[in-house]
Amino acid sequence: MSRLLVCPPDYYGIEYEINPWMRISDVTDSEKSKSQWYDLMKTLEDDVGVELERMIPIKGCPDLVFTANAGVAHNGIAVISKFKHPERQGEEKYFKNWFTEHGYKVVSLEDGSFEGAGDLLGFDDIWFGGCGQRSDKEVYTTLSDIYDKEIIPLKLVNEKFYHLDTCFCPLSGGELLYYPPAFDLYSQKLIAERWPFRVIVSSQEAERFACNVVCVGNHVVLPSGCDETMKVLKQYGYITHPVELNEFFKSGGSAKCLTFAL
Ligand code: ARG
Fold first, then answer.
1. E strand or H helix at 146, and its extent?
2. Substitution site in 6, 18, 40, 69 for ligand 1 pocket (most atoms within 8 Å of beta carbon)
């Protein structure tokens, strides 16, 4: 059974601006964000059948809810994120504690910034590392050695798509769901040459985080309002589960970044 690490949004809000979506003036509605988050969890548990591990929310860490940025965990080894922005660096110790307490061998990177599974995604045999915005390209050489995986760096060029998971998602059937203009031309060409099955998202739906989905087996949980994307996913045989997540758009996040695959 799939297990996902999540963190309830008790202290979620916009307290700083570190991406173009975030505006301190854009106050979040705490009741709404809680009910959207609980709907997402209910969908994941009841409709998709995943098991959830809940972290304890921490006051003063409004973005801890985005557990995708915890780090990366594979084969019992967890590499903890090293956030680019000081505003999020306070989260690192909570993620580190969680992995340590849950029996992982915890590794911290020495040089470079790395924002975890928000920037590192993959299929079984090949991983992709987003770089150019939050994570440094160089960290992928170290991560490739640690996990013994080929990691292809992909350069992100649009500030709105600052983590790889905002514009790119490998699906369980081998297809890639992505938004090409978020990448530099070299990365776009590389993706197009190597992956025959590509589901391209429109800019309108990319801006509704249509690529920020949780894919488990033939289920895809995605933010609501991405009808074109849902239609194509259904043609590929996926069962789609839309969830309203617009309170989290205010921080630049959606379904996928609210979860971390264990
Ligand atoms: N406000 C957060 C940030 O800018 C959102 C993180 C979303 N996480 C993700 N994996 N895309 O860091």
1. helix 139-147
2. 69
Is 163 among the catalytic positions?
Answer: yes
Catalytic residue among 7, 74, 131, 163: 163
pTM score > 0.85 for this model? yes
Q: Where are the beta strands (DSSP E) in the chain?
A: 3-6, 51-54, 71-74, 77-80, 105-108, 120-122, 126-131, 150-155, 168-170, 176-178, 198-200, 214-216, 219-223, 239-243, 260-261
Q: Is 257 a catalytic residue?
A: yes
For 191-200, what is each residue's pLDDT tens digit?
Answer: 999 899 999 9
Residue with tokens 């993706």: 191
Rounded to the nearest whole angstrom, what is the distance from the C-alpha of residue 6 to the centroid of ligand 1? 14
Closest alpha carbon to 223 in 192, 190, 184, 252: 252
**14-27 pLDDT, tens digit each:** 999 999 999 999 99
Residues with beta carbon inside 6 Å of ligand 1? 18-19, 22, 63, 66, 68-69, 88, 118, 163, 165-166, 251-253, 257
- Among 216, 214, 230, 222, smallest CA distance to 246 is for 222
Residues paired with residue 216 on neighbouring β-strands, in sequence order: 219
Rg (CA), the chain: 17
